[in-house]
Amino acid sequence: MVPADDRLRGSRRILIRLCLVELLKLRRSLVLLTTVACPAAVVALMFGMALRRITPDGMTAAQWSMLWGSASALWSLFMLPLYIGLCTALVNGNEHRNQTWRLMLSLPVGRLELYAAKAMVSVLLLAAAQLALLLALALGTGILGLAGFPLEAALQAQLPRLWAAPLAALPVVALQHALSWRLRSVVTPLAVSVVATLAAMQLGASQYWYWLPWAYPVAASNGGHEAMRDAAVLLGPMLAAVLFPLTAWWLSRREIA
Questions:
Q1: How far apart are CA 162 and CA 217, in angstroms?
Q2: pLDDT at 177
Q3: Given this model, what pLDDT does residue 106 score?
């Protein structure tokens, strides 16, 4: 019998190696470009609008807060869920497109380990996209400062809870990862992402937001009151902790389409 500690260490090593392999595969895909381009597009849009409607003399701390809050809301409500749908489709699409599922599953790794590794890579990409958003916000703020906008007021402004959106988005990663793993076509997972994002735009500010995980990111970062924001931050990881093993168990019993 192999000791439990040795089995655990072996599983960790396999997961790390699988994650490294998946990251190497992404070098030739659009995932890395998308991870930078999506946050940059959000910040460029919001800051471009600010340059058109706000003069440097009228840029107060409240205006800075509103600008950052608008960029955070657009990201967490619209672009982030779409990005998750796209990146999970691309992570699993390598095997679907190249028909290498049988090759991957013929290696000395289990299906659950491969499923977990691809999910972990999607979570890492989510964190990278959020970091790219922070860097884009910092760069955009610096550019506005060079254009004459008062950075002293920016230091007094209140930042939205940008750290909260990725935590609240974890159940979306679980669901989109399961769809893109199961289905060969990327159309269905992306269609689900678009429809759910549009639904979240309607439910995000309502009292029924907690029924739709796609509304969790904007509720966590830009919710109307503190109780809503705290609830979304708690609900996201808790629901993801249920969905990840549940979808892994369910998909382990079915052939990949």
A1: 9
A2: 94
A3: 65
Q: Give the DSSP H/E element, type plus range, for residue 151.
A: helix 151-156
Encode 37-46: b = buried (16+ Cβ within 10 Å), e = exposed: ebbbebbbeb
Strands (E), the chain: none
State the CB neighbour count (10 A cutoff) for residue 143: 14
pLDDT tens profile 20-72: 888 888 877 788 899 999 999 999 998 888 778 778 877 888 888 889 999 99
CB 222 within 8 A of CB 159: no
Q: Where are the alpha helices (DSSP H) in 54-110?
A: 61-74, 80-98, 101-106
| pLDDT(98) > 70 | no
Question: What's the burial of 251, exposed, middle or buried (CB within 10 Å: 0-12/13-18/19+)?
Answer: middle
Contact indicator for 79, 145 with CB cutoff of 8 Å: no
Contacts of 25 (CB under 8 A, 6+ apart): 94
The span from the first CA to the last CA of the chain, in angstroms, equals: 36
Which residues have CB under 8 Å from 40's CB, separation 6+? 132, 136
The contacts of residue 35 (CB under 8 Å, 6+ apart) are: 83, 87, 125, 128, 129, 132
Contact 58, 67 (CB under 8 A): no
Copy the structure tokens of residue 209: 């937001």
Output 181 or 224, whichever has higher pLDDT: 181
Q: What is the reported pTM?
A: 0.89
Report how far residue 244's alpha carbon sits from residue 172's, in angstroms, rounded to the nearest whole number.
10
Distance separating alpha carbons of residues 143 and 253, to the nearest angstrom: 53
**Lookup result for tokens 């996201």:** 236
